[in-house]
Amino acid sequence: MSVAAITENYTGERLDRLENFHGNQVIYIGWDQHLMFCAPVALALPPDTLFSTLLEDVLPGAFSQHPDFAAVDWDAVEWHLNGDEFKPQPGKSLIEQGVDHKSSIRFSTPGLDGIKGSGS
Amino acid sequence: MSKVYIALQDNEESHYIVEAIEEDNPDVTVIYQPAMIRIECEGHLVIKRETVEEKMGRDWEIPALHVNLITLGGNVDEDDDQISLTWNN
Amino acid sequence: MTSKKLNMKEKYSLLTRDLEWEYSYRDYEEIFKQESFEGIKITDWSKWEDPFRLTMDSYWKYQAEKEKKLYAIFDAFAQNNGQQNVTDARYVNAIKLFLTGVSPLEYQAYNGFAHTGRQFGGVGARVACQMQALDELRHVQTQIHAMSHYNKHFDGFQDFPHMHDRVWYLSVPKSFFDDARSAGPFEFMVAIGFSFEYVLTNLLFVPFMSGAAYNGDMATVTFGFSAQSDEARHMTLGLEIIKFLLEQHPDNVPIVQRWINKWLWRGYRVLTLVAMMMDYMLPNKVMSWQESFEVYFEEAATSLFKDLARYGIEMPDYAADAIAEKEHLSHQAWSIFYNYGHAAAFHTWMPTDQEMDWLSEKYPNTFDKYYRPRYEKWREMEEAGERFYNPTLPMLCQTCQIPMGFTDMENPTMTSYRQSVYDGERYNFCSNGCKDIFDYEPEKYVQAWLPVHQIYQGNCGGAEMEDVLGEYYRINLGTDNLDFHGSPDEARWNAWHNLQPAEDKLKKAS
User: Fold this and answer.
1) Which of C71, C167, C168, C289 could cross-link to C275 by cystine, CB 3.0-4.6 Å?
2) How far is C352 from chain A (nearest CA, A)?
3) Which domains are assigned to chain A?
4) Do chains C and A touch (3 or more CB pairs under 8 A)?
5) Would you indicate the residue range of the signal peptide (chain C) (predicted)?
């Protein structure tokens, strides 16, 4: 049973299907141990956005207020995509490396654990 | 045994009801909090019309409890002469 | 001849009997179309009993008495400029959240019970739903009346029904009730009558209201307690419903268990708002969220589920998850609102030193370790003139619609992530509870109107955030939103009490 409904074979409208985002897809990015940003952020970006663009142009806008941000060693960053380990390729687009609509990316920055090491 | 509880608004009328509850249920704990009185008891608690009437010095019917009631916990049994709360565990 | 006075039980059975009739020319199934599709089996409606056996005459009599008391206090509050006598203008922000987030739920409950009552073949259940619908209508009306006085003196109250339908954090309570009302009639009764009324409303209407009293808000404590006195009846009814369903047929047990699991978690997530109201928005403290939770959830729910064990009903698994979060919930909630204080129709702020010390004392295992350093950093930023606001929209949970600010209780500095793929699309969640609810009925929750996604789809006004917040949400920017410090609310409060903001004092001293 996919829903308890009065009508048989009831289906619901998928409100967030890719076509509704005018050429963008939504992706989420969370920075581990930096809960000064209370939740992962949601971004609407074209699927062919290069990962390097995400790193250089988008992430600073989201996270640079944190004092740790300037100290991030991007070569040492560990990434997860939808729960699995992930090695992003900066020269490839999001979609080319499996970052599809409503994918969730996490990154951790070894050695940087937030305000006074509190995970904030 | 689980605790049943009832909370009443902290006002004149409730004070008589609390007095009656204390008389009919010697084991109750009465806790005064801002604007409210919480009354707890292991397993069972009863409010008897007659006792409340005696404390108030006038007629009082059980549904009038609702005017000062805030909340309660337990299985409710109500008739013309009493209202009780019970947990059978 | 003397007529015998009827006792309560006789009066009640006469009341209900006279409202029932025989269905002679239509089929029962045609009249009560929604009674069977959820899988619930009712064999004998006459077993339904309202434990309070309230008849209409005594209902009107005592409700009228409650109203008279209530309005006398509203009048006294307004005539004596009660708004000036609350502890602190920050407190009023809890009331703004109440009016925009909770009062419209009372109206939804009215709609829900009016609709649901029509669906039941049993007259006792119909009468109970009718009375509850009337109660709920009374609640929304008295709440609007009480808070209309604050609307004359503080910002952020003006457009509450409009905001309830649109603003991002208000989609949390709104979607909770939409979910319940779009369920079948029995699920609605378990959702609202039992899980919400019995297990959860106490947390909102008892310790928070006691706190309102302690902060000088006579109007709010009075409508709160007056509403909760009706809730005491609703709670009793909620428990009767559960027992009735469980006694009617053994096949009902697993269905009811699943609904209890679901709605306890759904309701608990909505109460996240109450957690932060308790710990952060009451300047005079009565008890912490954790303490209230222990009394009104853990202790009360344990007694209740022990009582239901004889039917084979167990405490939901998610109750353990809720209990595990009790030392974190309010701080995580306040962090979310502090992050997005520019997008809220009420003010946020950093606690004072004294308030932080109270939080440390009440939350010895968590506050200093996880939250104080964050708050001190935010305060430092504010003092440097760079009050922190999160510039990017948050990821939301598909089910509860709250920003994903909850963490893994095994590792409290790690965000809790859950994901499902359904029909080729990804869906993200904050918890096992929210994920399981989606997985069981995905066709319902694929329809969730998630505010962040709606903004990105262009459905909430213009492309700029100012258009979304100002025009689509109708937040008066620079007035209703942002930090309490520097707000017109603060300036008015200081003028009433001849207080000076700290900055001015510093300037004068230098």
Assistant:
1) C289
2) 18
3) 24-117 (3.10.20.560)
4) yes
5) none
Burial C74-106 (b: 16+ CB within 10 A, else e): beebbeeebbeebebbbbbbbbbbbbbbbbbbb
Taking CA atoms, what residue in C is nearest to B42? C303
Contact C445, C396 (CB under 8 A): no
Q: Do chains B and A touch (3 or more CB pairs under 8 A)?
A: no
Nearest-10 Cα torsion for C202, C407, C362, C360: -150
- Nearby residues of B2 by Cβ (< 8 Å), 6 or more positions away: B42, B43, B87, B89, C302, C303, C306, C307
Question: Stretch C139-147: mean pLDDT, rounded?
Answer: 95
Residue C510 has pLDDT above 60, yes or no: no
The DSSP code sequence of C363-432 is -TTTIIIIIHHHHHHHHHHHHTT------SPBPB-TTT--BS--EETTEEEEE--EEEEETTEEEEESSH
Q: If phi over 0 gives left and psi between -120 and 50 gives alpha, with beta otherwise, what is residue A39?
A: beta
| Helix (H/G/I), strand (E/B), else coil: B41 | strand
Chain B contact for C73 (CB, 8 A cutoff): no
Are B44 and B84 spatial neighbours (Cβ–Cβ below 8 Å)? Answer: yes
Residues in chain B, how many?
Answer: 89
Sheet containing strand B29-33, strands side by side: B29-33, B36-42, B3-9, B69-73
Nearest CA to C329 out of C280, C260, C373 is that of C280
Contacts of A61 in chain C (CB under 8 A): 391-392
| Reported pTM | 0.95
* CB pair distance less than 8 Å for B64 and C303: no
Contact check, Cβ <8 Å, A36/C428: no
Q: Kindly report, residue by residue over C160-180, the tens digit of the pLDDT.
A: 999 999 999 999 999 999 999
For residue A45 the two structure tokens come to 């970006």
Q: Is B9 on the interface with C (CB under 8 A)?
A: yes
Domain that holds residue B19: 3-86
Interchain pair B70, C306: CB under 8 A: no
Residue C508 confidence (pLDDT): 60
Domain count, chain B: 1
pLDDT in tens, C14-49: 777 667 778 899 999 999 999 999 999 999 998 887
* Mean residue pLDDT across chain C: 93
The amino acid at C110: Y
Contact A95/C at CB under 8 A: no
| CB-CB under 8 Å, A101 with C414 | no
**C-alpha count within 13 angstroms, C-beta hemisphere, residue C227:** 30
User: What CATH number does the domain containing B22 carry?
Assistant: 3.90.56.10
Q: What's the Rg (C-alpha) of chain C?
A: 24
Report the distance separating Cα B48 and Cα B55, nearest Å: 11
CB of A108 within 8 Å of a chain C CB? The answer is: no
Q: Do C214 and B35 touch (CB under 8 A)?
A: yes
- The chains found to touch B (3+ Cβ pairs under 8 angstroms) are C
Q: Which of residues 40-69 of B touch C (CB under 8 A)?
A: 62-64, 66-69
Judged by CB atoms closer than 8 Å, whether chains meet at C229 and B68 is answered as yes
Interface partners of chain C (CB pairs < 8 Å, 3 or more) are: A, B
Is residue A42 classed exposed, middle or buried when 0-12, 13-18 and 19+ CB atoms within 10 A define those classes? buried
Measured distance CA(A89)–CA(A32) in Å, rounded? 20
Selecting from C62, C205, C307 the residue whose C-beta is nearest the C-beta of B63 gives C62
Which of C8, C70, C292 should we substitute to test contact with B (largest number of B Cβ atoms within 10 Å)? C8
pLDDT of residue C1: 47
Class (C level, CATH) for C39-509: mainly alpha
